[in-house]
């Protein structure tokens, strides 16, 4: 039984645990550093990258603004191509459809292409309950699955593992899932990839049913697109007799021609390549080539909730490249597990509350898991203004607590500040107190900030202790500006 | 009871009640034309650590033979325009090779539908001379013949040439992964060796 994110603590608690793991921080700093440099090099090579981003954003916006029409078109084109189209309101419905198809063919295993959406709906766990083993075939997913671990990155779910750890997992676990790893396995990435090839080949060759997601679904032509690197996708999409693809309704692209900017944006943003090794497209069933029974499950699972949010809607443009994770200073330090979802990082911090709605403490903590530095927006190939959505969602989280009988410390502090700032005499009185605090801290403050200013260490008390546990509180100036002006007549005395 | 389909479409309608649809397809920008498109294609394919060579039409059969190590078991699609000595033709006498049988071959030789210079990509549409998808996937070495007049500058040029009703496979170098420390290594499940012969 594999682990799930259910019951994860809110971001601050999870992040504290992650930050204490020095191996994790080392692995992440190394991997994100590598990918940032690669992405920067291939993006710089494109003369009109900014125009291309605008075009990519426009295509996805156009798809979303008339989503109903495009979905009906997609369904018609898929059906005309020989595919069976299913609709699923939520995770349970989608999992049940996949299980029904698998059981109709009497199989006890399926092979899987790496897919975010099937993780989102917990498909592997649902199939396991039906006695069907779902084999992950992407290398990183295999590492996560064999290690009974959780994914921590959209593109590279095992980014938190280094080569030595992966070797250990392969040696220990491969035998239990099929062909064991060779005893002389080294930690050379090429050798590890070779072991995965041997381990999975027998599964590909015998598989009857495959499950995939899709990166794009072309409404006009009923074409599904899977973008990948290893060839595990091609194996799953080609060799089995039956293919079930679970596709979020936001994956729609209106026309075949509009796939162009997205195919140019995704690989450069994602793996930092001009093009990923393999992209497969198919439109229903091709007689004599590939699966002869093709199912497509169109999934909502909160997407229409996000669609209804005027500010948040743009998050549905996401093409799951993970560029925002790789540039995020918070993600780089905490890693993906702290976000408590298959969608970590900046995009996860907005996508989870948009899909699930606010109100749950874990979900509500996510919009705060950001310094609002804006690096994610700059890296995003479809120009999702993540900081804008984060601030919007913070306001929703705060609004959700307006009627609390016991107000939060932050709300009390804000009320007190509003009271003090709205009257000159009250402000002067506060400034006098803060000046006194400044003189005390100036003498006894435990830390010194760059530039020589003293700062307080951890201050006890509700609210204050949470704030100062991760931040230095600079000593307030001993004299306010207004007091200084009065004393010196604006610097003339 | 409302069907999932009707309910999802109704939710979409409610969510977008105040949103105007945009009926004009988006036209993406194109890059400035490059002088030597075929040369760029060869260079970019080689960047993925694929083997790339150029030859004249007259030297093609020889180049293909040289790309296949002596004694290798080779499968080819029906309709391949070049003869490969000793190769098994997929679908000959109406017999289609199983995945397991394909796993017994060392190499496959196919043609292609289009080459994309900017990204070093080959696209197969699995027509005559290319064969069904499985044959260019399971063998470990893929020898792919691309004619220089099939090479286009960039992705949008390829998109207009390709027919999405056919299955398409876009290939950019040999199978690879960056899943271990984001360090790219070639060779996972797809062909570990990609040998591209650019003709003309």
From TrEMBL, chain A:
PANTHER family: LACTATE UTILIZATION PROTEIN B. Residues 396-487 form the Lactate utilization protein B C-terminal domain. PROSITE patterns: 4FE4S_FER_1. Residues 74-299 form the LUD domain. GO terms for molecular function: 4 iron, 4 sulfur cluster binding; metal ion binding. GO terms for biological process: lactate metabolic process. The keyword Oxidoreductase does not apply. Residues 453-475 are annotated as: Disordered. Residues 315-384 form the 4Fe-4S ferredoxin-type domain. Keywords: 4Fe-4S, Electron transport, Iron, Iron-sulfur, Metal-binding, Repeat, Transport. This is L-lactate dehydrogenase complex protein LldF. It comes from the Bacteria. SUPFAM superfamilies: 4Fe-4S ferredoxins (SSF54862), NagB/RpiA/CoA transferase-like (SSF100950). Transmembrane segments: none annotated. The keyword Iron-sulfur applies. Residues 453-464 have a biased composition (Low complexity).
UniProtKB/TrEMBL annotation, chain B:
It holds the Pfam family LUD_dom. Residues 104-199 form the LUD domain. InterPro entries: FTHF_cligase-like_sf, LUD_dom, NagB/RpiA_transferase-like. This is L-lactate dehydrogenase complex protein LldG. It comes from Nocardioides szechwanensis.
């Amino acid at each position: 039984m594999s682990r799930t994110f259910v019951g994860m603590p809110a971001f601050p608690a999870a992040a504290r645990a992650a930050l204490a793991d020095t191996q994790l921080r080392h692995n992440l700093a190394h991997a994100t550093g590598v990918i940032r440099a690669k992405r920067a090099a291939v993006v710089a090579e494109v003369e009109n990258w900014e125009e291309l981003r605008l075009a990519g954003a426009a295509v996805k916006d156009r798809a979303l603004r008339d989503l109903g029409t495009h979905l009906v078109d997609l369904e018609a084109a898929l059906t005309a191509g020989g595919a069976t189209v299913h609709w699923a309101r939520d995770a349970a419905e989608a999992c049940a459809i996949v299980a029904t198809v698998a059981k109709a063919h009497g199989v006890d295993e399926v092979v899987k292409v790496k897919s975010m959406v099937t993780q989102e709906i917990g498909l592997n766990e649902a199939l396991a309950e039906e006695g069907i083993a779902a084999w992950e075939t992407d290398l990183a997913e295999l590492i996560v699955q064999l290690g009974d671990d959780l994914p921590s990155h959209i593109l590279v779910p095992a980014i938190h593992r280094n080569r030595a750890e992966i070797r250990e997992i392969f040696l220990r676990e491969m035998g239990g899932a099929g062909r064991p790893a060779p005893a002389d396995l080294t930690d050379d990435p090429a050798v590890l990839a070779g072991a995965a090839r041997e381990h999975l080949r027998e599964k590909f060759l015998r598989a009857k049913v495959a499950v995939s997601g899709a990166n794009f679904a072309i409404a006009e032509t009923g074409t599904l697109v899977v973008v990948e690197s290893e060839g595990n996708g091609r194996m799953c999409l080609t060799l089995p007799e039956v293919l079930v693809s679970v596709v979020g309704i936001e994956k729609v692209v209106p026309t075949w021609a509009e796939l162009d900017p997205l195919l140019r944006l995704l690989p450069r943003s994602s793996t930092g390549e001009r093009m990923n090794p393999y992209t497969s497209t198919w439109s229903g069933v091709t007689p004599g080539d590939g699966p002869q029974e093709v199912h497509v499950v169109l999934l909502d699972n909160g997407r229409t909730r996000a669609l209804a949010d005027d500010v948040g809607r743009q998050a549905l443009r996401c093409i799951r490249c993970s560029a925002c994770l790789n540039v995020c200073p918070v993600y780089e330090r905490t890693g993906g597990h702290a976000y408590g979802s298959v969608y970590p990082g900046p995009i996860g911090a907005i996508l989870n509350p948009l899909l699930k709605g606010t109100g749950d403490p874990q979900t509500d903590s996510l919009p705060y898991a950001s310094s609002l530095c804006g690096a994610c927006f700059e890296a995003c190939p479809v120009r999702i203004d993540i900081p804008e959505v984060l601030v919007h969602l913070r306001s929703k989280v705060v609004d959700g607590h307006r009627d609390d009988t016991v107000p939060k410390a932050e709300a009390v502090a804000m009320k007190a500040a509003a009271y003090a700032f709205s009257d000159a005499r009250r402000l002067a009185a506060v400034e006098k107190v803060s000046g006194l605090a400044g003189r005390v801290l100036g003498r006894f403050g435990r830390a010194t900030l760059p530039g020589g200013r003293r700062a307080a260490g951890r201050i006890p008390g509700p609210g204050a202790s949470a704030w100062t546990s991760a931040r230095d509180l600079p000593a307030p100036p001993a004299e306010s500006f207004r007091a200084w002006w009065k004393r010196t007549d604006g610097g003339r005395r | 009871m409302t069907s999932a389909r009707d309910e999802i479409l109704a939710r979409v309608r409610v969510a977008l009640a105040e949103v105007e649809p945009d009926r004009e397809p988006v036209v993406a920008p194109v890059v400035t034309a490059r002088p030597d498109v075929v040369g760029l294609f060869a260079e970019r394919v080689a960047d993925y650590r694929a083997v790339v060579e150029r030859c004249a039409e007259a030297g093609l059969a020889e180049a293909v033979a040289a790309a296949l190590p002596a004694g290798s078991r080779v499968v080819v699609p029906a309709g391949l325009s070049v003869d490969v000595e000793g190769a098994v033709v997929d679908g000959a006498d109406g017999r289609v090779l199983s995945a397991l049988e394909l796993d017994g071959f060392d190499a496959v030789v196919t043609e292609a539908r289009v080459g994309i210079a900017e990204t070093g990509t080959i696209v197969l549409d699995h027509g005559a001379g290319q064969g069904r998808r499985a044959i260019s996937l399971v063998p470990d070495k893929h020898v792919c013949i691309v004619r220089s007049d099939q090479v286009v500058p960039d992705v949008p040029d390829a998109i207009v040439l390709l027919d999405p009703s056919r299955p398409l496979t876009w290939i950019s170098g040999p199978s690879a992964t960056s899943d271990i420390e984001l360090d790219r290594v070639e060779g996972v499940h797809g062909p570990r060796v990609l040998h591209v012969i650019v003709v003309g």
